[in-house]
Write a structure and sequence with these properties.
The protein is mainly α. Helix content is 75%, strand content 0%. The protein starts with 6 loop residues before the first helix and ends with a helix. This is DUF3243 domain-containing protein.
């Protein structure tokens, strides 16, 4: 099973990567810019594997650049709290 098939696994994976970036000294603004770039890549290149990913893609595609940056920032914030990773799917 791919991490993209289970949203909880995806959030855990993303949370681990965010923590690694922070420990490596990446600043919050840089981290959010990377998240924005990854969000764009995922939207364009990766087919959503579950309902949550489909919703994120629809929100991403509906938004302008500023809204996409906000969504990327929110995803980073979401996975920085371990309580949010284990909640839901």
């Amino acid at each position: 099973m791919s991490i993209l098939e289970n949203f909880r696994d995806w959030k855990e994976f993303l949370g681990d990567r965010v923590e690694q970036a922070k420990q490596a000294g990446m600043e919050s603004e840089t981290l959010q810019n990377v998240a924005y770039q990854i969000g764009g890549y995922l939207s364009e290149q990766v087919d959503p594997k579950n309902d949550q990913e489909r919703l994120l893609k629809q929100l991403w595609d509906a938004g302008d650049k500023e809204q996409q940056q906000a969504l990327a920032s929110l995803m980073v914030k979401l996975v920085q709290n371990p309580e949010n990773i284990n909640r839901g799917n």
